[in-house]
Amino acid sequence: MCKGPCRLACVEIPPRLAKRFSSKTASQISGDWEANNMKIAHDLHSLRKVLLILVVTLSCTMVLTGCSLLTRSYTISGVVTDALYGEGVGGVTISFSGLLSDPVATAADGTWTKSRLKGAVTVTPSKTGMVLSPSSTVVSKASSNVDFVGSKAIESVYWYSVWDASNFHGGSGPVSPTEDLTLNYFVTEESSAVQTEAPQGYDVLVISDVGASFDICDFEGSVIVTFDSGISPLFYWLTGDFGKETYWDYDSEEQLEWLNPVAGTELGTYGDARVYHSLASEPGFTRRNDILEARSTDDADDIIVYKIEHEGKAWW
Predict the structure, then answer these.
(1) Distance from C-alpha of 210 to C-alpha of 168, rounded to nearest angstrom
(2) Which of 152, 171, 206 is the last residue before a domain boundary?
């Protein structure tokens, strides 16, 4: 038992340990402790070496495999829109680099989503007959705005400027395509023979201030352009009536005000065709004055873009 006033400094040794210590000298006990300390130090040194080897090995593995052991998968999404009209483009194939990354297709509204991607991935859009920008992009983390913009690859124009009095209202003053147009597109101008069948195999049909003996609604391209009185055969084939004083008239004024794509004014012409704003309330006609618009009066457009839908077809 410990006795005396300094009991806090007194250590009581069990009899069995006391017997072991009593058989050794102080120097022997000290030696045992020193040997044990050296063994522990040696073991710690060996453990440090093993840990260092493990760290180096893991680091090399991460570099060689792109940290695939630690990288989490992520999801990306986006939308493909038309450059001119701003609408979603369906049926665009979105491809991804990597052996296990299958492509996806955009929905009717142009949206798409891809999940379970890892590491840096190259995303590439494609659609026949369309130029997409950017042509590709690289992602490495989750994102909801991997977007692309597409432009229809318009290459061919059929320019109808022959005097054709069929289904026509008003005076005629056909013009020929400009040199800039013919340098940038494949342009076929018909100025000598009246056509009775709609031209096919072209992206754009131009009715250059003349009538049309052929049914304009049979045109399978995507764009129809009418100059001045050329609007009359368009409405005839769409509605069965010229539509004058119902959808349009010849009351344009001289001062032309541009609103889109840029604001400004220029000298126009009296008595050219203008289209009433009220046409936009008719089924199948969508006025896109956010794209292109010039007017000389407040109630009509002298230059305008419409999206027209008719019997399962659509044109701009």
Answers:
(1) 7
(2) 152
